[in-house]
Structures are given as structure tokens and as C-alpha cells.
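Entry 12.
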Amino acid sequence: MTDLLCHFDAAPTLGGHALRDDPPPGEHPANRWLFLLSAEVREGHVTATPPLCHRCAPRVARARGSRKRSYTAVLVDGVRPWGVAGLLYDPTTLRPHPATDGGLSAVRYRSPRAPWVVAHQALISLHGITPVRLALRNTAA
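Predicted 3D structure (C-alpha cells):
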């Protein structure tokens, strides 16, 4: 996650994305990351999902479509470290604190709770988000 390499093949993810149409002037994806997320995405969206390279994105989108799962493809101008997802402990009892959804607790960096979490995933926030449509033709090399 630190280097923002492709989630599937660890290739660089900046530029060369699988866009259906040419981007409008000023929207060239060369300096943007492509994310394929299963949620509605807004400015500042927090995720543990790494970006995808242009070769893997169409294959991942086709696979998700075949499983009847929707996705949102977005180009992102900026990615900032946000925090971690992990097992949060109560500082008074030293017992695990149950997460609200039964999974991992999301804790911001510099939060008073940060010292009490055993991190499992890095979380990032996405900024400068532009929704895009992917070309789903076969782009396998």
C-alpha cells in the first residue's frame, strides 16, 4: 500500500488507464491512480483497497460483474495516509474492544486510540475523485 502498486500484479499504477473514452482536456490520467471500489465514492473516501494498473482493471471489473457485484471505478488525484484498521483494545481492561460491524476498527493516525490498536491494514483517503467507465475488452498481455 505504501508504494501504491497494483493490487494484483504489483505493477506501477500511475497513468495508462483503461478508459473507454479519451479524457477531456485537463483530465489526463497520467498522474492519477485508478481504484475499483465496491462502494459509492466521495471526496475523502477511506479505503484499504490498493489501486489497479491499466492491465488488471478490466479483468477485475469483468470478474466482479460475473459475480453480480457492482463496482465504482474512479481516477484519484491524491492519496493520503489516514490510519489503520485493526483490533482495538480497551486501555483500562486491556481486552479487545468490539468493533461496531463485528470486524476491524478503523482508527486515525494521531488518534488517542492509536496506541491501543493492533493494525491489520493500512487505510488511505482518496482526494480529487473522478468517476470513469472502464473498457472491458480483453487487454491481457
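Annotation: The first strand starts at residue 33 and ends at 37. DSSP finds one helix and five strands in the chain.
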